[in-house]
């Protein structure tokens, strides 16, 4: 989103406040701030991204999935939007783990240096009991992201079936 124009005042202040509320894990206050942004600026990518973050925080999965889908397609070079799309797709009623896996597998080759993509693919594969594939993807995440990823994996319930293997890495 490098070439996106900044938000003008006072809308930028509401956007910043919404970001702050999201950081404080208060979705309702974030929504209240985002609602104060002028209607003609609601389609601005920064505002859309803030809505996405707040809807994920607030468990508004259908809204989050739709927004993540729009953002991922509008900004296909931003891996975070694809990760959010998979995350929300996993949780919508018509989605699920298999659908989330498809989202990330479709862009895995596009982001070879983004460890979170193979990491999350590994999570989904684990949940689908495809442990050999999950191990291979987690190994790929380790190679990209280094040692800190091992620590994260050992506290991630989605990866619990791989914990004995991770401890040996």
What level of helicity do the residues show? 55-70%
N→C terminal distance: 36 Å
Give, in order, the helices and strands.
HHHHHHHHHH
Q: What is the overall number of helices?
A: 10
Report the radius of gyration as a whole number of Å: 17 Å
Biggest β-sheet description = none
Taking pLDDT < 50 over at least 5 consecutive residues as the criterion, the unreliable ranges are none
Class based on secondary structure composition and strand pairing: mainly alpha
General form: elongated
Question: Count of DSSP E strands?
Answer: 0
Mean pLDDT: 97
How much of the sequence lies in strands comes to: under 5%
Structure commentary:
- By secondary structure, the chain is mainly α.
- The chain is built from ten helices and no strands.
- It has a domain at 112-169.
- Helix 1 packs parallel to helix 3 (45-57).
- It is elongated, with a radius of gyration of 17 Å.
- The mean pLDDT is 97.
Which short descriptors sum up this protein?
mainly alpha, single chain, 169 residues
Describe the structure concisely for a colleague:
The chain is an all-alpha fold and 169 residues long. It has helices spanning 11-23, 27-35, 45-57, 61-74, 79-91, 97-105, 116-127, 131-145, 147-153, 163-167. The longest helix has 15 residues, at 131-145.
Question: What is the strand and helix layout of this fold?
Answer:
Layout: H1 11-23, H2 27-35, H3 45-57, H4 61-74, H5 79-91, H6 97-105, H7 116-127, H8 131-145, H9 147-153, H10 163-167
Helix pairs in contact: 1-2, 1-3, 2-3, 3-4, 4-5, 5-6, 6-7, 7-8
